[in-house]
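This follows on from our talk about sequence and fold. Please put the record directly below this note.
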Amino acid sequence: MQSKRNGYIFVFLALVIFSIQDAISKHLGTLYPPIFITMIRYWAFASFAIVVTCRTSGGFKAAIRTRKPKLQIVRGLLLAFQIVVVITSFSLVGLAHSQAVFSSGPLFVALLSMPFLGERVGWRRWTAIVIGLLGVLLILKPSGEGFDPVMLIPLGSALMFAVYVIATRLVSRDDSSMTSFLYTGLVGAAAMTLIGPFYWTTLAPTDWAWMLLLCATGTSSHFFLIKAYEHLDAAEVQPLTYLQLVFACMIGVSIFDEKVSLNMIGGSIIVVCAGIFTVWREHVVSRRKVAAVTDNANESN
């Protein structure tokens, strides 16, 4: 019980810090190029990843070894450019609306898991996916009027992150989580360092403080999330991540004067419920498969 409680505390801390990080990203994203912000952020993230892996069993040399180098590079690039799109979305669409669309991520992961992972999706999850996508349509028309093309930015980000999750699951079959964590930082930092200098902008003195705080929140949030996964299963963590949508709405409305429509609230509730059910159902199916394999092994013995 103590371990579970600590896990939930770590998840809550990670989500609160992620929300602060998003608010800072929105503030800086309205003033500076998102690629430039992402580059500085990745420098801190890559340094953090190196320090963490050096302190693990086997150290840096063990973590850098991968059986899927091309796929590790692809997923690292995906996340780096997805963060650029996220920051752009925060500045153009807003925190609340962006996070509402991002919450559709698990639905896209479930859809992509069929062709890429060879997973079977039963009628229950199909129903949840269809209902969830209807909720996304509500969110994409927050005022109930015509479709705004700018809403494609957060939708594209959600799709990119879903592909990143699928790629992460593929490499997890051969590489450790620490190897994937290290490549996420190194590949992203390398990619942004190649492109970011072309977008270099002189920061105002006060904005350097915001940038340093962004780097600090980025590393600490990932640290707490890693600690959470030491105490909880993914199925226990995933539903709690939807709290970030609540925090984003609170910050967006109170600090950035964003407007939250009934369409967005209704659509978000539908998407969150569908996403939680999809994750839960996937967990149930996975446990059944493990139990079946264990029973077959016991019978053969």
User: Anything to note?
Assistant: DSSP finds 13 helices and no strands in the chain.
